[in-house]
């Protein structure tokens, strides 16, 4: 095996076998399984005691008709609410609610104008949903009462209650429909998060690796055996493969878990993962931009790592890089809400932000092909420039030991590695 | 297969680390590279290895520059010791040997041999950080020579080792040289250099001050050491003609004299003045030569 392959496989295998890698991989895989099965798991806890968990509302009604109508109507709105009509005085009922016999009290009055007036008493903060559900049910009852006053037929009543057909469409062909956007947003959101986290973590891993080799002084042997540029790229590729392995593993776990659980449940977060043409495109772009972002920041981290003498100084040195990644992520999340904004459009071509921001745009909008290609090209160019420059710095940097970890060292490292003559 | 250093100069900005250094190191010899701290030894080694480029001049091994294309023929023990602390000895040494072009199987057998030779076969599967400093150094030495290089550069190979291990390492170095390798090493311990090297070079502040075969250097130095053990007070000899230096010891004095003849004059002078237990004329030690040439304080 040549030296490049040796370093690559050593980096990959050593990290793969490390405890920290195994633990994070397994923990995150578990989190994915829990996350994708959340509904089933929550269901386990709820289904047994479902009946007892009902929200008991005692209804005081002057003429009694409304309470029984409500009892029938509420079933359509929220099954969890149980209605108990009562003749007792409202003040007595109020006491009973306070004592915990009922969860809430509703007093209903039918005014002469045909208007229903209700007052809802509850001391629970979680009952907002219930009160609005009750309101919806009451609204229907009032409509029905009014309809029967007017002697409307069943058909006429149906016409009255007909829902509006409300479609949201955009002028331009390129734009995705609101429905598509919502679908895209979920997937893009998750992928942005994955790209952001993995670029941050894996580039940190590279920098730590380089700094460790330097602080343990094994670097001098390495650098006398293998050219720095080969070392940098072998390491970056090794950790990159490790990252892909990890992500592929998680994706497989997630996909399998969704497949298994979606038999029993429909809707929920699964509607976000409709693996149609659009999603596949988004995922492919996600992988491309993950790789670009990773290589860009890993190359940057590798040569910055070569400038520090102690691993303790690494954090400080990497701060600007981390800020760039975080800024990119902020822009991307901002772009989710407003993918057509000028700021987003401009920053999507800036190499350090492209991987996240251009990905957001590509995922959210139907861009002409040249736009992502341009961003990919620019980022690739930047990667090569950083790689080339980084290798120069690296060559001198790894031989340099000192206390400071400032950018002044950059110059020193360049001088040290200068090709003379 | 000679290593030629031709008019090499290295400047770091305004500071000149190595100045006009010219050396020829014949093949299959053991060459001592001496110099005070900061004299430019490590810089010269790094230039030999092609890690940094010379500002002027050229270093060639066997007619060509040392670089990554022939790194399999070169072994290097850096002054700053370093191995992966978390890696096991075997994994690590085999990995480093493979980076220098050695076959895995061969590296494993060789490692076994060397660990046995250094009396530490049980370290094979230990992590480096678990070993003592001296033992780490043995491992580091093994890593430098495992791939059977033709040119071996050892930067302070004996520092930090106990006398037993120094002997082990010296024997190993001698064996490797006998098998045909060219070995260059730097050391602060003059007695190691005297014992091992046929030829040597002393550099001072980046410039070579002495270069040649050990015997010739000693002969041409001229000055001799005179040891006198006696009860009487010999401190007056410091003003004796031809005495360069006088150093008092518990048993007597050690004089540095300009040439052999002076010793006879001194002998005549002190005869009859008291009881003389010992009177011996000795070759100057490399330590004396070094102190004179490289000047100032040392060790």
Characterization of this structure:
The complex is a heterodimer of chains A (421) and B (299). Chain A has 421 residues and is of the alpha/beta class. Chain A has 16 helices and four strands. Chain A has two domains: 54-160, 3-Layer(aba) Sandwich (D-Maltodextrin-Binding Protein, domain 2); 176-416, no CATH class. Chain A has helices at 3-17, 19-36, 38-48, 65-77, 90-99, 128-149, 154-160, 178-215, 219-225, 228-261, 277-305, 314-337, 342-347, 354-364, 370-397, 408-416; strands at 55-61, 81-86, 104-110, 116-121. In chain A, helix 1 crosses helix 10. The two termini of chain A are 34 Å apart. With 299 residues, chain B is an alpha/beta fold. In chain B, the strands form three sheets. Chain B has a six-stranded mixed β-sheet, with helices on both faces. In chain B, helix 2 packs across helix 3. The chains are: A alpha/beta (421), B alpha/beta (299).
List the helices and strands and how they pair.
The complex is a heterodimer of chains A (421) and B (299).
Chain A: H1 3-17, H2 19-36, H3 38-48, E1 55-61, H4 65-77, E2 81-86, H5 90-99, E3 104-110, E4 116-121, H6 128-149, H7 154-160, H8 178-215, H9 219-225, H10 228-261, H11 277-305, H12 314-337, H13 342-347, H14 354-364, H15 370-397, H16 408-416
Parallel strand pairs in A: 1-2, 1-3
Antiparallel strand pairs in A: 3-4
Chain B: E1 3-12, E2 15-25, E3 30-35, H1 41-48, E4 56-61, E5 74-77, H2 89-99, H3 104-117, H4 133-145, E6 151-155, H5 163-178, E7 182-186, H6 190-196, E8 199-204, E9 207-213, H7 214-221, E10 224-230, E11 243-248, E12 252-257, H8 260-270, E13 276-282, H9 286-294
Parallel strand pairs in B: 3-7, 3-8, 5-6, 6-7
Antiparallel strand pairs in B: 1-2, 1-4, 8-9, 10-12, 10-13, 11-12
Task: Name the CATH class of the largest domain in chain B.
Answer: Alpha Beta
DSSP strand tally of chain B: 13
Largest sheet of chain A: 4 strands, mixed
Low-pLDDT windows of residues of chain B? none
| Total count of strands of chain A | 4
Mean of pLDDT of chain B: 86
End-to-end CA span of chain A: 34 Å
Helix fraction of chain B by DSSP (H/I, runs of at least 4): 25-40%
Number of helices of chain B: 9
Outline of chain B, from the CA principal axes?
A: globular
- The radius of gyration computed from the alpha-carbon positions of chain A, rounded to a whole number of angstroms, is 31 Å
Q: Can you tell me the number of structural domains of chain B?
A: 2
Q: What strand order characterises the main sheet of chain A?
A: 2-1-3-4
Instruction: Name the overall outline of chain A.
Output: elongated
Oligomer: heterodimer
What is the fold named in CATH at topology level of the largest domain in chain B? Rossmann fold
| Estimated helix fraction of chain A | 55-70%
Hey, roughly how much beta strand do the residues of chain A contain? 5-15%
Percentage beta strand of chain B: 25-35%
In CATH terms, the superfamily of the largest domain in chain B is P-loop containing nucleotide triphosphate hydrolases
């Amino acid at each position: 095996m040549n030296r490049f392959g040796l370093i690559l496989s050593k980096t990959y295998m050593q990290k793969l076998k490390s405890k920290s890698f195994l633990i994070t991989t397994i923990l995150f895989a578990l989190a994915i399984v829990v996350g994708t099965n959340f509904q089933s798991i929550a269901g386990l806890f709820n289904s047994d005691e479902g009946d007892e968990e009902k929200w008991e509302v005692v209804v005081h009604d002057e003429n009694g008709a409304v309470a029984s109508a409500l009892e029938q109507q509420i079933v359509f709105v929220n099954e969890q609410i149980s209605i108990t009509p009562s003749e007792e005085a409202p003040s007595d009922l109020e006491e009973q609610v306070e004592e915990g016999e009922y969860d809430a009290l509703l007093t209903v009055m039918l005014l002469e104008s045909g208007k229903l007036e209700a007052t809802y008493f509850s001391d629970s903060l979680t009952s907002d949903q219930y009160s609005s559900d009750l309101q919806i049910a009451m609204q229907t009852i009032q409509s029905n009462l009014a309809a029967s006053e007017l002697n409307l037929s069943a058909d006429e009543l149906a016409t009255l209650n007909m829902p509006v057909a409300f479609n949201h469409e955009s002028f331009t062909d390129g734009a995705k429909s609101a429905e598509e956007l919502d679908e895209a947003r979920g997937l893009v959101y998750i992928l942005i998060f994955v790209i952001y986290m993995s670029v941050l973590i894996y580039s940190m891993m590279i920098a730590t690796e380089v700094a460790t080799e330097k602080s343990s002084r094994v670097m001098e042997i390495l650098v006398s055996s293998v050219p720095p540029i080969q070392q940098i790229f072998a390491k970056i590729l090794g950790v990159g493969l490790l990252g892909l392995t990890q992500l592929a593993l998680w994706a497989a776990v997630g996909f399998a878990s969704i497949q298994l659980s979606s038999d029993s449940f429909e809707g929920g977060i699964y509607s976000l993962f409709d693996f149609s043409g659009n999603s596949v495109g988004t995922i492919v772009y996600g992988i491309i931009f993950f790789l670009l972002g990773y290589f860009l920041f890993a190359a940057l981290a590798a040569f910055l790592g070569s400038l520090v003498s102690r691993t303790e100084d690494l954090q400080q040195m990497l701060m600007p890089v981390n800020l760039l990644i975080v800024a990119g992520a902020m822009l991307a999340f901002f772009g989710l809400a407003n993918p057509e904004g000028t700021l987003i459009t401009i920053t999507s071509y800036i190499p350090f932000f492209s991987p996240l921001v251009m990905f957001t745009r590509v995922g959210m909008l139907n861009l002409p092909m040249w736009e992502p290609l341009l961003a990919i090209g620019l980022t690739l160019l930047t990667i090569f420039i950083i790689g080339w420059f980084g290798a120069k710095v690296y060559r001198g940097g790894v031989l340099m030991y000192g206390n400071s970890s400032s950018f002044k060292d950059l110059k020193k490292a360049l001088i040290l590695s200068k090709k003379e003559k | 297969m000679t290593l030629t250093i031709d008019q090499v100069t290295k400047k770091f900005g305004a500071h000149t680390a190595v100045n006009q250094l010219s050396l020829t190191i014949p093949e299959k010899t053991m060459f001592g590279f001496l110099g005070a701290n900061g004299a430019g030894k490590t810089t010269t080694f790094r230039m030999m290895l092609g890690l940094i480029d010379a500002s002027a001049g050229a270093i060639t091994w066997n007619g060509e520059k040392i670089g990554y294309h022939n790194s399999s023929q070169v072994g290097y023990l850096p002054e700053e010791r370093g191995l992966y602390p978390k890696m096991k000895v075997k994994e690590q040494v085999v990995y480093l040997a493979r980076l220098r072009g050695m076959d895995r199987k061969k590296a494993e057998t060789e490692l076994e041999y060397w660990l046995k030779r250094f009396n530490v076969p049980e370290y094979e599967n230990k992590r480096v950080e678990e070993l003592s400093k001296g033992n780490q150094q043995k491992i580091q030495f093994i890593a430098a020579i495992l791939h059977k290089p033709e040119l071996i550069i050892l930067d302070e190979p004996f520092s930090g080792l106990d006398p037993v291990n120094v002997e082990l390492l010296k024997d190993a170095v001698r064996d490797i040289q006998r098998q045909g390798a060219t070995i260059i090493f730097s050391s602060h311990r003059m007695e190691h250099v005297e014992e091992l090297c046929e030829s040597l070079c002393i550099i001072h502040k980046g410039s070579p001050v002495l270069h040649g075969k050990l015997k010739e250097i000693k002969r041409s130095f001229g000055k001799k050491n005179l040891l006198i053990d006696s009860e009487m007070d010999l401190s007056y000899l410091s003003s004796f003609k031809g005495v360069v230096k006088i150093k008092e010891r518990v048993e007597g004095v050690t004089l540095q004299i300009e040439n052999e003849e002076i010793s006879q004059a001194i002998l005549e002078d002190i005869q009859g003045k008291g009881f003389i237990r010992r009177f011996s004329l000795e070759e100057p030690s490399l330590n004396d030569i070094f102190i004179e040439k490289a000047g100032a304080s040392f060790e």
